[in-house]
Automatic annotation (TrEMBL):
Gene3D superfamilies xrefs: Immunoglobulins
Domain Sulphur oxidation protein SoxZ, chain residue ranges per copy: 9-101
Cited InterPro entries: Ig-like_fold, Ig_E-set, SoxZ, SoxZ_dom
Pfam (any one): SoxZ
Organism of derivation: Undibacterium terreum
Xref: SUPFAM superfamilies: E set domains
The protein, known as: Thiosulfate oxidation carrier complex protein SoxZ
Signal peptide stretch: none
C-alpha cells in the first residue's frame, strides 16, 4: 500500500470553492530507463486518478510516463453538502489505492 497525503478542509460553507490537494508516494518508472544492470526497468506508473464527492465524480486525470515520481495533484470543487470525498488511484501491475476524507458543509 502506498503512502498518501490528502489535504481537504474539514469544514466549509455551502457554495465555497475548495482547493483539494493529494500526493501519493509512487516511483512512476517510465519503462525507458536502464537499471544498474543495464537492462530496461519495467514500466510502473499510475495511469488514472479520480475523486468522487458523495459518489459523484468531481475530478479525474489520466497520467503517462512523463509524470514525475510521487505525483502531486491539486484541483478545485464546490462545497455542496456534508459527506465523503473518495480518492482512487489505478496503475500498472494491478496497483490500486483508495483513500477517503470527510467534509462538513454549513449553510
Amino acid at each position: 500500500m502506498a503512502s498518501t497525503v490528502i489535504n481537504v478542509p474539514a469544514q466549509a460553507r455551502r457554495g465555497e470553492i475548495l482547493e483539494i490537494r493529494t500526493l501519493i508516494r509512487h516511483p512512476m518508472e517510465t519503462g525507458f530507463r536502464p537499471g544498474a544492470d543495464g537492462r530496461i526497468q519495467p514500466r510502473d506508473i499510475i495511469q488514472r486518478f479520480s475523486c468522487l464527492y458523495n459518489g459523484e465524480q468531481v475530478f479525474s486525470a489520466e497520467m503517462f510516463s512523463a509524470v514525475a515520481a510521487n505525483p502531486y495533484i491539486s484541483f478545485h470543487t464546490v462545497a455542496t453538502e456534508s459527506g465523503t470525498l473518495s480518492f482512487h488511484w489505478e496503475g500498472d501491475n494491478g496497483f490500486t489505492q483508495t483513500e477517503t476524507a470527510k467534509i462538513s458543509v454549513a449553510d
